[in-house]
Amino acid sequence: MEKYNPKIILSAAISIDGKIATRSGDSKLSSKKDLSRLHKLRSQVDAILIGKNTVHKDDPLLTVRYSKGRNPIRIVLDSCGTISNKSKILQTSNKVRTIIVVSKKITKKNLQKLKKFPIEILIIGENQVNIKSLIKILSKRKIKTILLEGGGTINWEFIKNNLVDEFFITITPFILGGENAISLVQGEGFDKITKSHKLRLNRIKRLENDLFLCYSKL
Ligand SMILES: NC(=O)c1ccc[n+]([C@@H]2O[C@H](COP(=O)([O-])OP(=O)(O)OC[C@H]3O[C@@H](n4cnc5c(N)ncnc54)[C@H](OP(=O)(O)O)[C@@H]3O)[C@@H](O)[C@H]2O)c1
């Protein structure tokens, strides 16, 4: 039987203490070697998905630059359509296929702003983007692999809904601390360890001072 659900890989570079950014939002944790690995992976997936705070904080391009290969579709979850006109993602949307997913809460003004760019706008969900409905739509479009590149809030939404198949985590040689520094997974979290999905360690690789770990669902 054909499997419709796309495979979802959560990818992140974390500090030893599990943070994905400092308290001020500095997230440049990756080494050059790890970036080449990540960009090769990007070239092998159909889409990359991130949350709107990551766009605001990092202003990423989400393209393949440190490796050869094609760019995947970029998907941003932004319920109110607040992404900046000046963001690299919108500014390069004539070159790289881009989908901005909003909810019905978006204002007319923000919708008009988005319509000026050559992007696809998906309106899914009442107050916030409905992740399960989005995945169904992407699945119907034959998107088979999605690289989830955070941040912590979006990671929790996918983990809570048991949507992540694999976790590709690079532990980098930094300790960042800070109660307000974003962790790999934010949100409410599970109250019992038994509620967390049990994972299997499939691969482990040392990249100089980094440690790359690959876990999958049991
Ligand atoms: N080290 C790394 O590998 C790495 C990777 C990525 C990000 N980061 C860091 O992570 C930080 C951002 O993380 P974050 O947790 O603040 O934000 P985030 O996960 O990037 O974005 C969260 C936002 O997404 C929107 N969203 C849309 N639909 C949603 C849904 N169904 N559920 C939840 N959120 C939804 C929400 O805003 P609306 O309600 O307005 O839509 C929410 O506030 C940045 O500092 C960035 O540098 C690090």
Give a description of the structure.
The chain has helices at residues 32-44, 52-58, 88-91, 108-115, 131-140, 152-160; strands spanning 7-14, 47-51, 73-77, 98-102, 120-123, 145-148, 166-171, 199-207, 210-217. It is an alpha/beta fold and 218 residues long. It has a 9-stranded mixed sheet with strand order 5-4-3-2-6-1-7-9-8. The chain has a single domain (7-217), classed as Dihydrofolate Reductase, subunit A, CATH 3.40.430.10. The chain binds NADP nicotinamide-adenine-dinucleotide phosphate. NADP nicotinamide-adenine-dinucleotide phosphate binds next to strand 1, strand 2, helix 2 and helix 6.
Walk me through the topology.
Blueprint: E1 7-14, H1 32-44, E2 47-51, H2 52-58, E3 73-77, H3 88-91, E4 98-102, H4 108-115, E5 120-123, H5 131-140, E6 145-148, H6 152-160, E7 166-171, E8 199-207, E9 210-217
Parallel strand pairs: 1-6, 1-7, 2-3, 2-6, 3-4, 4-5
Antiparallel strand pairs: 7-9, 8-9
The protein binds NADP nicotinamide-adenine-dinucleotide phosphate (NAP).
NADP nicotinamide-adenine-dinucleotide phosphate binds at residues 12-13, 20-21, 25, 27, 29, 50-54, 57-58, 77-80, 128-129, 131, 149-154, 157, 182, 186.
